[in-house]
Amino acid sequence: MVSRRKKKRKLKKILRNMLIALPIAAGVFLLLFFGFRIKTVDYVSDINQFRADEVQNYLVSHKIENSLWFWFRDLIGLEKDIDLFESYSVSLKSPVKIKIDAQEKKLRGSFIDADNEYYFDSAGEILKSELCNYKKTKKGKKKLQANSLGICRFTGISFQKPALYQQINTTEKEGRETIRHMIEAFDEMEIALDKVSEENGKQPGISINKIAVSDQYEIVMHLKKGLKVALGKDNQLKEKMDAFVDIYSSTKAQLTAVPGTLQMQWIMTDGSYTFIKDEKKSTKK
């Protein structure tokens, strides 16, 4: 009888402790779940392509909401992949505030759909969008301006249903292949630029404004000061870009003296290329 009473008292004590512990555990869980919700993001990056609100919108869209869990995963080296970044670190400033220091993925190109400009990375994923920038002319018409990031814009290719954090989708396969090959050529160009910089201590400073693609998928690069580079079809693009860097680094002053087109549709074995000046438009008196 005594042992049964002891067992009953012990069981009652366990149940009482559980009844006390369960609300406490539930309270702790609710505190951790709802109390540590990301409401503010401080953001520091290396090349400043993204704003803090864009980073926060990305976190929300990918259901990265708990500041404590996000910080703890980063702390133990299990950080979540974030499409915007090559790498990043997280600091917990308060239950509702985090700071992110990031190395951003480089945006490689942009295109326009309706009145929006979409930016994509080397993998062809759309990572940023913004409203197009227009300026009124003297005649009151809207004139499209360069995008805010100075990223080269692709024109002449039709895109389908662009959306953030999705792959670019073109109407025809050739358009998608042309973009992919141009991005690969950009990478080769940067390697060549680094090589030139190491050799003579002075980087040519190539800035591409636009990539125009014709109906026949012939490519023309538009650079500053009216310089255009006709690359023809997208075959041997890496070799053509490497040759262009060599030409541009040695004859930049001549190439940018007057508007014109450098003909690079074919690889010339002797390294020579033709430059055709733009015809001057006659002005009516």
Please provide a written account of the structure.
Helices cover 35% and strands 27% of the residues. β10 and β11 form a beta hairpin. The chain is of the alpha+beta class and 285 residues long. α4 packs across α5. The chain contains five helices and 14 strands. The chain has helices at 2-35, 52-61, 67-75, 173-200, 237-255, and strands at residues 40-45, 85-94, 97-104, 107-113, 116-121, 126-131, 134-136, 142-144, 153-155, 208-213, 219-223, 227-232, 260-263, 274-277. The radius of gyration is 28 Å and the shape is elongated. The strands form four sheets. Strands 9-10-11-12-13-14 form a six-stranded mixed beta sheet, covered by helices on one side.
Q: Count of DSSP E strands?
A: 14
Low-confidence stretches: 26-34
What is the percent of helical residues? 25-40%
Radius of gyration: 28 Å
* Shape descriptor: elongated
Largest sheet: 6 strands, mixed
Content-based structural category? alpha+beta
Termini gap: 121 Å
Strand content: 25-35%
Order the strands across the largest sheet as they lie in space: 9-10-11-12-13-14
Helix count from the secondary structure assignment: 5
Instruction: Give the overall pLDDT as a whole number.
Output: 85
The run of helices and strands is: HEHHEEEEEEEEHEEEHEE
